[in-house]
Amino acid sequence: xxxxxxxxxxxxxxxxxxxxxxxxxxxxxxxxxxxxxxxxxxxxxxxxxxxxxxxxxxxxxxxxxxxxxxxxxxxxxxxxxxxxxxxxxxxxxxxxxxxxxxxxxxxxxxxxxxxxxxxxxxxxxxxxxxxxxxxxxxxxxxxxxxxxxxxxxxxxxxxxxxxxxxxxxxxxxxxxxxxxxxxxxxxxxxxxxxxxxxxxxxxxxxxxxxxxxxxxxxxxxxxxxxxxxxxxxxxxxxxxxxxxxxxxxxxxxxxxxxxxxxxxxxxxxxxxxxxxxxxxxxxxxxxxxxxxxxxxxxxxxxxxxxxxxxxxxxxxxxxxxxxxxxxxxxxxxxxxxxxxxxxxxxxxxxxxxxxxxxxxxxxxxxxxxxxxxxxxxxxxxxxxxxxxxxxxxxxxxxxxxxxxxxxxxxxxxxxxxxxxxxxxxxxxxxxxxxxxxxxxxxxxxxxxxxxxxxxxxxxxxxxxxxxxxxxxxxxxxxxxxxxxxxxxxxxxxxxxxxxxxxxxxxxxxxxxxxxxxxxxxxxxxxxxxxxxxxxxxxxxxxxxxxxxxxxxxxxxxxxxxxxxxxxxxxxxxxxxxxxxxxxxxxxxxxxxxxxxxxxxxxxxxxxxxxxxxxxxxxxxxxxxxxxxxxxxxxxxxxxxxxxxxxxxxxxxxxxxxxxxxxxxxxxxxxxxxxxxxxxxxxxxxxxxx
Length: 689
Prior knowledge:
Helix content: under 10%
Number of helices: 4
Distance between the termini: 23 Å
Structural class: mainly beta
Radius of gyration: 27 Å
Number of strands: 56
């Protein structure tokens, strides 16, 4: 099925479930039927964006639902009656917490850049998003269906606004223009030019007749939307203007600037009425209450501040964010505040007390934009992680469910028998897991630098840890004790690998070197020179005769471990190689590259056998099954892919909720896979055939 048709089918299915649920309520159908419809509606609502990416993932995603789920029970029954998934597919050994989190209602994604701004209709039915690719996306909130893509801007869109009648949209861009769009036709109505630098913020008047814009050219400009003509240009020696908003009556504007001052403007005279001082850094976002009495601002100083517009004084300061506050929103009743920050959180606040009511972690990069949706029981957030997410605010404490309490997981390793796994993030601790149960067995610390690489011995009894500065640690996993420290890499070991017989190890460092280690004596045997930039990944063949390395110089190199001699250098047509893998017999190699390709290389000939295309972002990790039949790759594009090594065909695409940072596979049957992602999750899969 073509992707466009598939997308339409998923969203139409969502609409059908909504209609069926309403009909069930009207007709007073039995409660179990209504509950069943609701269960499927929520499943499609949460997972629709992943089913769009890979229809074959439908049944596995159903099986990944909670154990008591109706949806999961139906999937298990379907498998029992002989229904199957074509080709190899992934089954969660333990479904991730995020997919059981009732706070996350929907994820809007798919060929979207960094989301810089969103705007939602008053009834909560229509959503606008402006992205870093210069595209305005229009979605139907209830189904997640994409209605339009408005193209015309020649650079990133920084701000969007939706008219109250839902017929027109306003946008501002780095291309220095403000544009008005007809949402029914998708056509550009006016292009308003006048700013001399990037447009950072736009807003529409309630009657849709005027617009205001702020720019890095240090001006605030008022526009007539009936003619597209500039009515007024206002400046107050404020530095870059980062945010603007209009009062409901259209007589006043509020702006936030680089100098940390919030300004209230009289649009009839073009003069500032108040300069509100209190922030200690740039003001990134401002909004004004519907009655025009209050203004709210968010700043790079990590605070939100509430202001009395008439008196020009600060009423409250909201503290809790740990990075720049990028956007703020006021609820329609003026009682609650929503904020998004580069600390990757969305927070809900009480206006009267300035206390934080709820917060959510789920985005894997900074939150640039937020909005209340509909009656205020839901929230929308857009992020640098290239998604828009819809959240349930009515769940109270449920919204506090967090992912990634330990930060992003950058490194994982799995034992040959698939029983144990290791994970590490950007901190100094690493964790030992029981793969079958998903239980954390031990959290280990004692390393004084950040973990940069992990490997686990074949018997799962000890580990090799690469660290930021002090090279390689040899660690006993049973006793949680350091056995020895092997120093050598001046700038730290970026990647490590252990030979299956446990006698040798290899590390790759930022100093461009590959090092071979004797693990019995804890000493360096060879320093292998050849790479001209940092070595990102190393691997050892099962027969321990060969090592493979890939680096930022765009090459894959094969080494003889006995002599330390370079046997082959293969130049990949990519800027850098992020990951490598080698077959058990040392005849084949894999490379994952920054251009989104996976390359299968013949090590005897030095030739490229297959270039596997399909990923749309950098391939972070690659692996080859023990029998050499399958290739597994993980990418920042939020997919895991299975490939046929013989033909180069893509057999299965598994859409992940978050970007993959690392993956490892066992040598067992069925194959076990462990992944680490941007949300701090360590996930375990079984490969079913």
